[in-house]
Each structure stands twice: as structure tokens, then as C-alpha cells.
Specification:
By secondary structure, the protein is of the alpha/beta class. The protein has helices spanning 7-14, 16-28, 69-72, 95-98, 108-120, 135-146, 164-169, 186-193, 198-213, 242-253, 283-295, and strands at residues 57-64, 77-82, 104-105, 126-129, 154-158, 176-179, 217-218, 224-233, 258-262. It has eleven helices and nine strands. Helix 6 (135-146) links the parallel strand 4 (126-129) and strand 5.
Amino acid sequence: MNKMRPGYLRLHESGELSRRIEAARNILKDCTLCPWHCHVDRPAGDKGVCRVGALPMVSSYGAHFGEERPLVGNNGSGTIFLSFCNLKCVFCQNYDISHLGEGREMQVEELGEIMVSLWRQGCHNINFVSPSHQVAQILEALPYAIERGLDIPLVYNCGGYDELATLFLLDGVFDIYMPDFKYGDSQTALRLSAIPHYFETAKEALKEMHRQVGDLVLDERGIALRGLLVRHLVLPEGLAGTREVMNFIAREISPATYVNIMDQYRPCFEAIGNVPLNRRITAAEFDEAVAVARQHGISRLDGITV
């Protein structure tokens, strides 16, 4: 059976992982982990936009079977839902976690033990949801898990609003990057997710992610070993800018990029009274998004075979 050795094991053995952990700790003292650049001292108890201090904050974890096929396999994706988020989407379907901060602080060793527990259950990977603001905490917990046998891929499951300098620190740590590419223009992102310069930031982040891990590689069972997997949630009336997103992926990343065009949008949180976000997408809107991807030569579409 094909098994690719995760890069973080080599970094740990060489001592490079320890250097990365120290660098991330130092960033927390004047925090620029994500593009907000809050410049707060998180170890001293200060909190910025993300509202998370120096310790890991986790909402829930478990074997998850609702992710993309290459992550789920037979045994599920070992998913850790991290509390809070560096995006402020008005339609967030997990707003109790991302906006309200459901979850609790824990020591880094407990986060490491969660990883080990999911690995022992047979999960195919460890999938960190909304990690952008907790990168330092993840890195610090990783040696604990490695020393107890962890040897499966790590998944960076983010909103695409990521700091390049932080991604440089993660080179060789995460085998699978799974960013959302939410919007094809920054004005819509500012209006619906309260984040500045999203399109420009996400484009540079995805380029760096792809440079590190390349196109998605699967084993003979169809389970992801390494690579980039991009999610794109279709919004009503084309608000997600699907054409611009697919054009960028095809031209500046790779037409062989594995893409999940998602049809599960539903009105949540503040979107309930926000036209046109107060309705689900139509079948025609979803079909158009798929057609746009194909027009740009993107054929590796999750769950779509025709």
C-alpha cells in the first residue's frame, strides 16, 4: 500500500521543527500570524481580531465523514475544529464556533493527545479547521504527537486568508493544504466577510501552498497523501465570483488542481435577512459554476464525474 512519509517527521528529526516552533512563539509576542497584523502580545494575555490568546482553543474533534472523498476514505478525516476564525463571514454555517468562540482553552500537550487519539482511531489524516490564527499552537503541540507515533498527513483547512510569512514557516509541516477560495473580488469579501484585500491575499497564499505541496496526490485507494485541494462555495447570484476564481486557479496554479465546487450554501447567521443571501442556490447556479470550471480546463472536481 502506498504511504508517503509526512514531511513533519523529517523536520522533527533534523531539529528544524524546533526552530520553526520558536519562530512562531516569537511572532505571537507581536502577532502577525495572519494578514490582520494585530501586533498584540498574545503570551501576555492580549487578544486581537481572532480573540485567541497563546494557548490552543478547540471546539470539538472526531472522525469526520462529511469532508471530500480523498480525505474521508473508509475511516474518516481526523478533524479538529479550532475556536474562532480570522474571517467574519455573515453567512457562516459554524458561527457558534467561528464568531461566538464555542470551545475551550487547553495546554498544547492536550492538543497533541487529540491528534494521537484520532490517529489511533485509524483516521487517514489530522484535519485542522480554521488554523490560520492558531499556527503557533499547532506547531508547539506537534512534537508531543510525533513522539507518540503520529505519522499521517496534516491538513491545513483554512479560509484562504493567510499570511505568507506564516506559510513559509509551515513549509514541510502540512502535507495537504485545503483552502477555501471564497471570493473573486475583494470588495465582496469586505462586505460579506469583513476582511480587506481578500482576493489579492488568497491568490498569493494559494500560490505558496501549491509551491510547497503541488497538485493533489492520491494513493491506490483514492486517499490523499499530499497536495492542494481547493474549496469554492457557490453563493446566490454569483456573489462568490466563480469565473474569476477558476480563471486564477487554471492560469496561475494548475488546471490539474483538485477543486470542490460546493452546493451546500444555506442562509445562516446574519444572512437570514440579507438579500440575496437569504436563499439557497438554485440547481442552475450550481451547474453554471461547474460549467465555468470546465471551461477553464479544470476537470478534477470532487464528486462530479460527468
